[in-house]
Task: structure prediction
Amino acid sequence: MKLPGQPLALVRHAASRQVIKQFAHKFDFVYFGHVDPQRDEQQIIRGITASAEHIDRHFAFGSFRGRDIAVVERQNTLHFPGQGTQSYRWLIMQFDLHDAGHPHAFMDAHHHEEIFYANLFTKHGQLDDVTALFASHDPLFAANFKTFARSRDAGRVHLMLTPAITAMLAHHFKQFDYEIAEDSLYVYASNVVVTLSTLQEMLRVGVWLVEQLDAQK
Result:
């Protein structure tokens, strides 16, 4: 409950800390709290939301079913000329992939505004909208997700995101966004209240998806 005179951001910060610590305890993770990018370089979660301005809080790390997993709440205010500013908070769960040869792909379930894409294409100008690749898959996937990848990787991305994977995401996990990059999978919950249920669902889909991806190698 918000106490009189207590800033909403402080209340949200305390609530997120409590829930992520609860999740860490339940799954035997280690809770580190704030991440200082100058001192904790080895703990930084990367991905497309990483920038010089983002703020990471409530970092936790552990393993589950043989996978290294990291959790963080990330905040950033995005700017772009002519489009003003937009604040985002992402709850991010990063999973290790056993193979580093997967092509880079980002699947956004319509959780971001144009200013996010403007920044995305500035930092990752090689990414293109390849959603049309999946027109023959379950129609809910193309309806609920935009998929981005490098044009030169389009064929590999189409093979990587099998009909079974896209159908599962579209029917059961469209509340999240996904990025596959190098040897990591990132599951994003955008601008949500941090709950134990959300964290557990992110863990559930993330472990399933990395196992599906690694089984292809």
Remarks:
- The chain is about 35% helix and 30% strand.
- The longest helix spans residues 196-215.
